[in-house]
Design goal:
The complex is a heterodimer of chains A (about 220) and B (about 90).
Chain A: H1 16-51, H2 53-61, H3 65-91, H4 94-124, H5 140-176, H6 186-211
Helix pairs in contact in A: 1-5, 1-6, 2-5, 3-4, 3-6, 4-5, 5-6
Chain B: H1 8-29, H2 36-56, H3 64-89
Classes of the chains: A mainly alpha (about 220), B mainly alpha (about 90).
Chain lengths: ~220, ~90
């Protein structure tokens, strides 16, 4: 590489601290817009849930709690390895940074694999909204709305996971090129913010889709 | 920047608390306690979100400007949801 791989200070900033603060502020503003994106869907869920409580609880009872709970644990684990990746970046340990970024990617891939297994099981159960949809009991058409919101919201979350995997991969490449040091590793921190944010969204998705109908299991 | 923002120990205990809260959420979900089920699930999810933000996302260590953005995001979400819920709840009057 002709240019120095590590970028300490761009010309529009006075100090590295100011540069880091600016980038962090920008990332949090982006995350606030993401709150609005997912917030609209959570609002839609809230309104439909208020009008069709029985159907939504029955729909929730149809979820596979085993896979859902394991997936939550996997994603929390990936957030933990991501936090450790940021820690390694701060101490300037490049080998550990690559190791933790890779394990975060692997756990993210496990999450997606389990998520799509669930989608396939819903497909076999004919729970995919559309002409082929079927659901036992008189609440079928209202429960279909539960599944519409379920697929849109978990699907949008899964899309964010795919983007996160891409970001982590680019962080690994940049780390291998020697771009990050104990002094400059802001991109790793911001990738971490994104990853943890996607984890927070899942925590709420797990609560609204999987937990509400649990007490109907086995009935 | 030699000193890491948050220690490995804190990360580990945050991780354990999050796993514990997930287990608690799931176990409490099996109880049939009516609308309390929803309240408990959302309450514990909020606690988990706060733990992730505070320790994993270093929210406690950020500048005031960044904190304003965090609160702005959450407060506008709460305004949007609470006012809409009030609207729909009062329509049958």
């Amino acid at each position: 590489m002709a240019e120095p791989a590590t970028l300490i200070l761009r010309e529009q900033f006075r100090t590295p601290v100011q540069q880091r603060e600016t980038a962090t502020l920008g990332m949090w503003i982006f995350l606030a817009t993401e709150v609005m994106l997912f917030g609209g869907l959570f609002l839609a869920f809230t309104v439909y849930r208020m009008y069709n409580p029985a159907a939504f609880i029955q729909g929730s009872a149809d979820m596979n709690i085993m896979l859902g709970a394991i997936n939550t644990a996997v994603l929390i684990g990936s957030s933990f390895t991501m936090a450790l990746a940021v820690h390694s970046a701060e101490t300037g340990d490049r080998k550990l940074l690559t190791a933790f970024l890779t394990s975060t990617m692997v756990l993210g891939a496990v999450f997606l694999a389990i998520k799509f297994t669930e989608y396939y099981l819903h497909y076999l159960d004919r729970r995919v909204p559309g002409p082929g949809f079927s659901f036992p009991g008189p609440e079928a058409s209202r429960a279909e709305m539960f599944f519409v919101l379920y697929f849109i919201m978990t699907g949008l979350h899964a899309l964010h996971m795919f983007i996160g995997e891409g970001i982590l991969f680019s962080m690994i490449l940049r780390n291998r090129a020697g771009s990050f040091t104990a002094e400059y590793h802001t991109p790793v921190e911001l990738a971490g913010l994104y990853w943890h944010f996607v984890d927070v969204i899942w925590v709420f998705l797990f609560a609204i889709f999987y937990i509400e109908g649990l007490h109907l299991h086995g009935k | 920047m030699a000193e890491p923002t948050v220690s490995k120990r804190t990360y580990f205990f945050t991780f354990l608390s999050l796993l514990g809260l997930t287990l608690l959420t799931t176990l409490l979900g099996f109880l049939d306690i009516g609308s309390l089920n929803t309240a408990i699930a959302l309450g514990l999810a909020t606690v988990k979100a706060c733990l992730i933000a505070a320790f994993f996302m270093h929210a406690l260590h950020e500048s005031r400007t960044v904190r304003v953005v965090m609160f702005a995001g959450v407060i506008w979400l709460l305004i949007m949801i609470s006012l809409t819920v009030v609207d729909f709840m009062s329509r049958s009057w």
